[in-house]
Amino acid sequence: MRTVVLGSAAGGGYPQWNCRCSVCALAWQNDPRVTRRTQSSIAVETGQGLWTLFNASPDLRSQILATPQIQPTGLRETPIRSVALTNGDVDHVDGLITLRERSPLTLYGTPEILGIIDANPVYGVLAKDMVAKSPVTLGAPFTIDEATVEFFGVPGKVPLYLETEKLVIGDVGGETVGVDIRRGGARLVYIPGCAVVNDDVLARVDGADALLFDGTVFEDDEMRKAGVGVKTGRRMGHVPMSGEGGSLEAFRDVKVGRKIYIHINNTNPVLISGSPERRAVEAAGWQVSDDGMEIALGGSAGRRVEADRGSTAA
Ligand code: MLT
Ligand code: MN
Ligand code: ZN
């Protein structure tokens, strides 16, 4: 099963258009220790030559330009057949507008997330006869092409633009989900936003060949320290990497083939190659994804196919 990281940054991208924090400054200066990143999305080959976008970022058009696997294959023909949404945040849904030029698509999301799309007249630009909306039930596996996909709730919150004074952070429901993607014996778990790593989250990722996980902030109060805002990572629905209950500690003993951070905020010093924070996450067995990163997972079925070919040749 092949996956391409289309966008490894959190909302705003890296560097962010209006920011010269110490981490963004390096990118504006073209410092060789950092690489520019677009906003949060991955593409997974869910069938032979058929790709599903998991989240549609505001940078989707430039991501397609940078990614041959998802470029058009013929006259008004695209390998992108499906889009699955993990929440209703701007960095995950705005790219749907980029997909408005009448190609058949299936849009997967929980009723909560599809409800947000339905309630916004701008998304009416997606032609009803072309874009099918398929509501997904948490915990109920379904098929996309040759892949088996399951959504599961993770602690989160409603999108920023729907926050009210009654905001609850850490609710588990259809507002913020993780996705389990299996094909040919390979298994990827993608959780770009998660407020708390609880036992349910640990059980969900156990045994996966690869985990792509929320790498928004290194320190919970990093944005305040950087002077860019007062919100903590947890207040934004993002568990920090470091500290008590941070993702480094929480996933320390989990059995996962590869642990990869994604959805990385522009203030996060892990973006700087060789920084103490980057070295700390690498020492803990994590990779920091960048745009264009390809993740190929063989899986047992893939190996069986190779073994069968071998025996035929013999
Ligand atoms: C988040 O991940 O917290 C959101 O994407 C923030 C935003 O809306 O930009
Ligand atoms: Mn985000
Ligand atoms: Zn910045």
Commentary on this structure:
This protein is α/β, with parallel strands linked by helices and 314 residues long. The chain has one domain: 4-Layer Sandwich (Metallo-beta-lactamase, Chain A), CATH 3.60.15.10. The chain is built from 9 helices and 14 strands. The protein has helices at residues 22-28, 60-65, 90-93, 111-119, 199-205, 222-225, 247-250, 276-283, 299-313; strands at residues 2-7, 41-47, 50-54, 80-84, 105-109, 131-135, 142-144, 147-153, 177-183, 186-191, 210-214, 258-262, 286-288, 294-296. It has a 7-stranded mixed sheet. A 7-stranded mixed sheet has the order 7-8-9-10-11-12-13. Strand 9 and strand 10 (186-191) form a beta hairpin. The chain is globular, with a radius of gyration of 19 Å. The protein starts with a strand and ends with a helix. Residues 301-314 have low confidence and may be disordered. The chain binds D-malate (MLT), manganese (II) ion and zinc ion (ZN). Zinc ion is lined by residues 16, 19, 21, 23-24, 266-267. The site of zinc ion (ZN) has 7 residues, from helix 1.
Q: How much of the residues is beta strand, in percent? A: 15-25%
Order of neighbouring strands in the sheet with most strands: 6-5-4-3-2-1-14
Please report the distance between the alpha carbons of the first and last residues. 27 Å
Number of domains: 1
What order do the SSEs take from the amino end to the carboxyl end, as H and E? EHEEHEHEHEEEEEHEHHEHEEH
InterPro entries: Metallo-B-lactamas (IPR001279), PQQ_synth_PqqB (IPR011842), RibonucZ/Hydroxyglut_hydro (IPR036866)
Pfam families: Lactamase_B_2 (PF12706)
Protein name: Coenzyme PQQ synthesis protein B
Pathway: Cofactor biosynthesis; pyrroloquinoline quinone biosynthesis
